[in-house]
Design brief:
Structural class: mainly alpha
Helix content: 55-70%
Largest sheet: none
Shape: globular
Number of helices: 4
């Protein structure tokens, strides 16, 4: 996946590693991602892993957390 600079405004998107920076990617896409980025995250990461990241995140908005908990329910 080629990440948008506007999604990762504070780093160079070319330096983001999907394995090492999984929490960072998931949190940004959850809050600010476009449809294609959300689909990529949902297909790339295991739903139980996504759910654990979403549940423990301290930076997500409550509405975002609630939506993603529903999306990763199954």
């Amino acid at each position: 996946m080629k990440f948008r600079q506007t999604l990762f405004w504070d780093v160079n998107p070319k330096n983001i590693d999907p394995q090492k920076n999984a929490q960072y990617i998931i949190e940004r896409v959850a809050d600010f991602g476009h449809d294609d980025e959300v689909r990529w995250v949902l297909s790339y990461y295991d739903k139980s892993f996504l759910r654990s990241i979403i549940a423990k995140s301290r930076c997500l908005r409550p509405e975002t957390r609630a939506l993603w908990m529903l999306l990763t329910d199954r």
